Amino acid sequence: MGNGNGKLKKIKKPLRGAIVGFGNVAHYAHLPVWKEFDDFEITAVADCNDGRCSVAKEAIPGVRVYKDFMEMLQREDLDFVDICTPPKYHAEMVKMACMAGKHVFCEKPLTTRWEELEDIYRILEKSDSIVFTVNNWKYAPIFAKARELIRKGTIGPVKEVKIFVLRPSKSGGGCFDWRKDPEIAGGGILIDHGWHNLYLVLSLVGENPCSLRARLDFPDDSRCGVEDNVKLCIDFPNSEAKLYLTWRAKKRRNVGTIVGEKGSILIKDDHLIVKNNGNSERFDFGEALSGGSHHLEWMYPVVEEFKAALENREEWTKNFTEAQWCARLINLAYTSYKSPYKRVEVPQEITTGDNGK
Fold first, then answer.
1. Which domains are present in the chain?
2. 237-249 mean pLDDT
3. Which of 5, 74, 219, 243 could covalently link to 232 via disulfide, CB atoms 3.0 to 4.6 Å apart?
4. String of DSSP letters for 275-341
């Protein structure tokens, strides 16, 4: 893929970028971080909504704004695009950007179907572009601490992970606006919250999944065509993970447990408790996992990771492989749902993102 020598094509800095889809995530989570980095400059915005175009002009003095994404690609001298649109548009925009020779920084989910990701990879094989997914939840301090404790062997080898994501139906990620339309959202809570929690589970367990079972429930409200309640069980060679995701809760909460051979870690939204050999230790964190939707502070290390990926293919490969696992597991979960809670084997053939050229 591309020049294949482990290094990506050098580009003069600052890198010129465009934000595509100037909604709240772009405005309050992406843009403030780009402004903090001397290596990047946002010079254009594309959004089909007149109101959001006006907001972009006010937020970024001198920015050039377009209603049409393809027109922007043709007219602007860009190094990368930052895609913040609803999921339906991700795959096509990613492919167009790569074919135009641009790098891509894309909000999750990178794709909503496995076949779309395969199409992207085929384009990347002939390109020097990279496609980088914004997997920012792994930079939440509470999960970073959990991984640190696991690496230190504090609880021994991980045997079980349970994660519960509890959200009311209209909490900024529930079944409303475009999120209730499967044609635009690509799915419900499994897409919206499942993507984040799948790469979190993979990072905590440290193994490739073997099989999974999924149960998806849909709301009685006929205006909402996506799942709002999910139970997902994933089997690994030496452990298992269980995810419970819902938009039916009375309040926002993120909790979970990580059980090892020597102890356990309890995740309690804004703190964790480590139990080992009869001892207990608590670690507190300034921001609860359920505290908001934008998590600005978690975006800074994501952009640092993007910088590293632009310079070194091995760094990019980690992110792309992570995205492939998320896309594959979500698609298999929907397959399992069609035959209620049927165990589905997980293929192990994941492209690394480097074909050895």
1. 15-136+297-325 (3.40.50.720), 138-284 (3.30.360.10)
2. 96
3. 243
4. EETTEEEEEE-SS-TTS-S--HHHHHHHHHHHHHHHHBHHHHHHHHHHHHHHHHHHHHHHHHHHSTT
